[in-house]
Amino acid sequence: MTSFDVLIVGGGVIGMMTARELANGGAKVLVVDKGNLASEASWAGGGIVSPLYPWRYNDAITALASWSQSSYVRLSQELLEETGIDPELRQKGLLMLAVADERNALEWAKRCQRPMVQVAADFIYQLEANLPAGLEQALWMPEVSSIRNPRLGQSLQRSLELHPNIELKLNCPVLAVNRGECRVESVSTADGDLTAGHYLLSAGAWSGGIAEAADVQLPVQPVKGQMLLFKAEPGLLDRVVLQNGRYLIPRNDGRILVGSTLEFEGFNKRTTEEAYKSLYESAIRIMPKLEQYPVEVHWSGLRPGSPGGIPFIGQVPGVDNLYINAGHFRNGLVLAPASCHLVADLILGRQPMIDEQPYQLKAPRPENLI
Fold first, then answer.
1. N or C end of the chain: smaller count of CB under 10 Å?
2. Strand order in the sheet with 192-194
């Protein structure tokens, strides 16, 4: 029987990036998922490599986001070279329209040394000629990227399949987490019990329920988000545009995503006509020419909501070999490289690249979700 150093429960982008980081550090890793890899929030999201309105988040989010944003170029290049699958990282910037708290935004950007400038109408229409007439000013973040998250998932999966230190066990739900007084002894699945030296819980919106099976209280809950995809043509939109909490994201083939809703309905992933209408109207307000193009797909996904939107990263108090990397809420792709590197540092006994204290399960959290 193969002996594993780390067993990861959950094969989304967070679980896969963590597995890759651990394996590159010399660990033997098993990834277990109830379905296929990157088939939940990792697939359903939009792929903006920045928090929406980043100045409105806690500094703990900024620390992870800043580290991650600077690493995506290298990561995308490595994955393309390893697998031949292009994650389609677009380094085109983020244009934010009708921002009410611009002063706060600019002060945050100066304090955190993040490129952001206020731009006037001529600059706006030079960037995006198809935006509606009458725009006078906006905020521009030139270094913000977007990534095609389904392609990122495919590329990460292939990277894991090729890695000699990683094994995958898919369509294998975890039924129980068996622990002694201060250690996890095994996890029970439909295929039998699985063991490892360390266990990492990284199951997205399902992390809270699995943690409860280990007698651990983890405040992570599902938050539904619905999105639309327009079958547009290349050149209509070239960069991410954000207005009043809704955004348009272009892909290399011309398709344009519009997102997203924020719904607290448990594990219900049903799409609704109400959300379709709201998203469609938002898309047309941001770019009226989209009315000329058909909506190709309407879907939903479940984000792993957490208090303050701050993920839980690190060892579970009182359980020596159980770790968590979950609760990234709306920013899973944004924060993934940093959070996965951090939890790998902690498991492998390396010096953490950033302070882990804000992400520990025992740390005080604000009461409300962002």
1. N
2. 174-179, 184-189, 192-194
Averaged confidence pLDDT in the chain? 94
Counting every residue, how long is the chain? 370
Q: Cis omega (within 30 of 0) on the bond before 71?
A: no
CA angle (151 as vertex; 175, 27 as ends), nearest 5: 55
Determine the Cα–Cα distance for residues 224 and 39; give it in Å rounded to an integer: 15
Handedness of CA 313, 183, 37, 164 (dihedral sign): positive
Q: What is the DSSP string of 65-131?
A: HHHHHTTHHHHHHHHHHHHS-----B---EEEES-TTHHHHHHHHHHHT---EEEEHHHHHHH-TTS
In degrees to the nearest 10, what's the CA dihedral of 77, 79, 80, 83? 160
198 burial type by CB count under 10 A (0-12 exposed, 13-18 middle, 19+ buried): buried
Give the torsion sign (CA, 187, 189, 194, 199).
Answer: negative
Torsion sign across C-alpha atoms 76, 28, 19, 316 = negative
In this predicted model, what pLDDT tens digit does every residue of 237-286 receive, in sequence order?
999 999 999 999 999 999 999 999 999 999 999 999 999 999 999 999 99
Gap between the Cα atoms of 233 and 35, Å rounded: 33
How far apart are the C-alpha atoms of 205 and 266, rounded to whole Å? 10
pLDDT of 135 higher than 50: yes
Phi, psi of 9, rounded to the nearest 5 degrees: -95, 110
Place of tokens 């594993």: 4
> Cα–Cα distance between 154 and 364 in angstroms, integer?
36
pLDDT surpassing 90 at residue 2: no
> Which residue(s) pair with 301 in the sheet?
225
Angle between the N-to-C axes of helices 332-348 and 13-24, in degrees from 0 to 180, rounded to the nearest 10? 30
Residues 6+ apart with CB under 8 A from 121: 135, 136, 137
pTM for this predicted structure = 0.94
